[in-house]
Design brief:
GO molecular function: ATP binding; nucleotidyltransferase activity; tRNA binding
CATH class of the largest domain: Alpha Beta
InterPro entries: CTU1-like_ATP-bd, CTU1_C, Ncs6/Tuc1/Ctu1, Rossmann-like_a/b/a_fold, TilS/TtcA_N, tRNA_thiolation_TtcA_Ctu1, UPF0021_CS
Organism: Zygotorulaspora mrakii (Zygosaccharomyces mrakii)
Family: Belongs to the TtcA family. CTU1/NCS6/ATPBD3 subfamily.
EC number: 2.7.7.-
Radius of gyration: 24 Å
Number of strands: 10
Order of helices and strands: HEEHEHEHEHHHEHHEEHHHHEEHH
Bound molecules: adenosine-5'-triphosphate
Distance between the termini: 64 Å
Strand order of the largest sheet: 5-4-3-6-8-7
Shape: globular
């Protein structure tokens, strides 16, 4: 489809220097320097190219089927707010025929998630979309605040990531929805490619640029319509469209390794703006050697515990770099999909329960020695 610049008769009469004109429509004043290619363009052309690129991504990947129910993972942050807004707009403009629902996970982080969920509730009214909220408290009987108090802040992203993935799937399943879209953008994807290269994590590297991910046997597929959208352009779009979003960072520690990869990429982007897309394209075109793992190796990999919970409550996710993932299995404890006998969430929960008892023993400083132990034992409940 050829690009037709949107008309703006109000601004046409004004005299603008040729050097200041939008490089796309050549009639309005350029207001924005596009982060993706440094093109100087006007606001209306920016809206148009930004939305059209997302539409092209959706069409090329055949993301939606007519009549499909789609849940937008809505955190209230800039990415998912823009995603909900643009998806609704494109659905109306191009008649995708999808039914959009906002799905939010309440991790239980006071002063952060409660405020961002208030934004999602406003978005629900502004965009006239149904909203479903699923909480860690209901699913796991723990909030992130309690997890951090028990296991420390160092592993907070690991706990939160594992629980959130599962919570989004469970929330979608509850609504009878089999497609969850998230606001992961080009920067997130390029960072993930770099992180997997730095870690030598070949199994994850192979999957890290997929726009759709789904475990075989799983009813829920996930997709990333912002796969090629730059973070900076999403922020610009939200700003110029005056969208209502929540911009505070999570109160707990950011993932340190991702932070380092992000900084490296930001520095590269200064010299070469296209590097974000280039990294994604490199990942897409990477052809890995066929795996040589024997059946025995695969079996022992699937039996290996996916999470190591240390005695101080911190956790380490095992990275399986030699063998492939085994899809389609179910966790023996919760029945949720897992490539291991016991899923990561259940192992983390078990570690937390053990640590809860230990922490309550150690916390009481009002008495010492045997009295402290007796008092703690009196309070313990299993
Ligand atoms: N609490 C949540 N509830 C529902 N979806 C979530 C939640 N947290 C994250 N997501 C989904 O996962 C995507 C990536 O989240 P992440 O926190 O890694 O990035 P982000 O850049 O902060 O995203 P956002 O700006 O949308 O908050 C989000 O865009 C959203 O679609």
């Amino acid at each position: 489809m050829s690009f037709v610049p949107p008309s703006d008769p109000v601004n046409r009469a004004k005299k603008i220097k040729v050097s200041q004109l939008c490089e796309i429509c050549h009639c309005r004043k350029a207001l924005i320097r596009r982060p993706k290619n440094l093109q100087r363009i006007c606001k209306l052309c920016f809206f148009h190219v930004f939305e059209t690129e997302i539409h092209n991504t959706i069409v090329c990947a055949n993301l939606f089927q007519k009549g499909e129910k789609v849940a937008v993972g809505a955190s209230g942050g800039k990415d998912s707010t823009v995603l909900a807004y643009v998806l609704k707009l494109l659905n109306d403009r191009y008649n995708y025929g999808i039914h959009i629902v906002l799905l939010s996970i309440d991790e239980g982080i006071v002063g952060y998630r409660d405020d961002s969920l208030a934004t999602v509730k406003r978005n629900q009214v502004q965009y006239d979309l149904p909203l479903e909220i699923v909480s860690y408290r209901d699913l796991y009987d723990w909030t992130m605040d309690e997890i951090v108090a028990c296991a420390g802040v160092r592993s907070s992203c690991t706990y939160c990531g594992v629980f959130r993935r599962q919570a989004l799937d469970r929330g979608a399943a509850k609504l009878g929805i089999s497609h969850v879209v998230t606001g992961h953008n080009a920067d997130d994807m390029a960072e993930t490619v770099l992180m997997n290269i730095f870690r030598g994590d070949v199994a994850r590297l192979e999957k890290s640029t997929a726009i759709i991910t789904q475990s075989s046997g799983s009813p829920i597929k996930r997709s990333k319509p912002f796969k090629y959208s730059y973070q900076k352009e999403i922020v610009l779009y939200a700003h110029y469209k005056k969208l209502d979003y929540f911009s505070t960072e999570c109160s707990y520690a950011p993932e340190a390794f991702r932070g380092t990869a992000r900084e490296l990429m930001k520095n590269l982007e200064l010299i070469r703006p296209s590097c974000i897309i280039d990294i994604i394209h490199s990942g897409e075109n990477l052809i890995l050697k066929p795996k040589k793992s024997s059946k025995n190796e695969l079996r022992s990999a699937s039996e290996q515990q996916p999470v190591e919970v240390r005695s101080d409550g911190s956790v380490k996710l095992q990275r399986n770099t030699t063998a492939g993932f085994i899809d389609g299995g179910k966790c023996e404890r919760c029945g949720y999909l897992s490539s291991n006998r016991i899923c990561k969430a259940c192992i983390l929960l078990e570690g937390l329960e053990k640590n809860r008892a230990k922490v309550s023993l150690e916390k009481d400083t009002s008495v010492a020695g045997a009295a402290r132990l007796t008092r703690a034992l009196e309070r313990l409940s299993f």
